[in-house]
Amino acid sequence: MAEMMNPALEGATLLFPQGSFITAYAYTGVEDEIKAYQTSAWIGTALMTSPIYDVYGPDAVKLMGQVCTNDFTTLGMNGIRHAVMCNEKGQILTDGVVIRIGEDRYRTYWLDPVISYYVNTSDLDVHGENMSGKEYFIQIDGEKSLEILENAFQANLHDIKFGRHRIQEVNGKQVRIIRLGMSGNLAYEIHGDISEFIYNLVWAAGEKLGARKLGLQAYNMFNHTEAGFPNINLHYPLPWLETSEKMTEYMRTVPQLSMFNLNRRLLGSVGDDLQARFVTPYDVGWDFLIKYNHDFIGKEALLEMSKKPQKKCVTLEWNAEDVAEVFATMLSPGEEPCEDITKPCALEYYFCVREFGFEYRADKVLAADKEIGITSGKIISYTYNSMISLAFISAEYAKEGTELEILWGTPGTRQMKVRAKVARFPYNQDYIRNEKRDVSDIPVFER
Length: 447
Description:
The protein has helices at 30-39, 60-67, 114-120, 145-153, 199-208, 216-226, 245-253, 255-258, 274-277, 281-284, 299-306, 320-328, 349-352, and strands at 13-15, 22-24, 42-44, 52-56, 80-86, 92-102, 105-109, 127-130, 135-141, 164-170, 173-179, 187-193, 212-214, 265-267, 311-318, 353-354, 357-361, 364-367, 370-375, 379-381, 386-394, 403-408, 416-423. By secondary structure, it is an alpha+beta fold.
């Protein structure tokens, strides 16, 4: 792992394990970068760390259906799937985007190394190819994202509907444009051959329209916690080493891809209980991605859960006075201090990457001293001047305004209770625009 610079330095960088790509920790500051989507757009490259893996061959669609909750038989050449992979217990093994790029070829993002494990152990006529590091990946999110891309590419892109993609020629280069926003806003992704990286072209157009570069810190905070989108490796660990001996053996052969689930360090009052930290599609609100019209790994367990979902993903807003009281223990001579509650974000790569492993924080959520779920890290929301977290709690307590408590502190350290209430979900819903909207109100680019 390369040396990581002090995050307090503007433009600090992080080197990720997938390869040599370096992404900025911050540019103009978290608040400025996050708010850019409201009036213009932010442009980010954080997901260039994504493992990219192609599944191809006569039985490609059959394999994808066997290992994902989604139905791929109806996926057209311009379609997209938010794919979810589970183990036999119905626990999420990973999730990511899948696009169909050929008759029998599917490109996957963030599904590897789970998808390569299944390809390598399958008896079907199917093959795989690691494409990581061969493709660039630019995200653009915000009110002016379409205008920026049209001006950058000198092309009319109004025809690309939500959940669709197509190829656009830009200065003689083939660029794949995907319309897909996880935050609820109008958003796009731009993909292409890494040797033909066109970031400067996109940024030049964005800068003229008031866009901001998005650093890794802002990406982790806004795109996921404020936007109500639980993310693998940030909000919860994955049961790669707890599913089967064969899968465990395979994961240990690809340590760079498996680093988030090798040598885990578990923080928070949930302690070493890994099973309590693993989640299902129902826990995170993705049950609409489960199609029971085909057989897939985890189907029986998920069918049972569908009869009465046990948990629901919510936003918890932490009580400021209680947070201050926890912090005060760090400044009280002679008193045992609690763990530091002041980190701006417990979901940041900079803070969480440790010795080729990853830290996960989860604290117990209580209702009248009854344990009803867990938090998944926390952040300080600069936009709303509050501390919040996503939490997976019993559905009966998920009503907005419900008063609960969080037990702060890893076992073996001083623990204190922090009051919290179920807040709006997603937390930034007052700024969200409809990502599926008709874009006819946006003017076509000017030549």
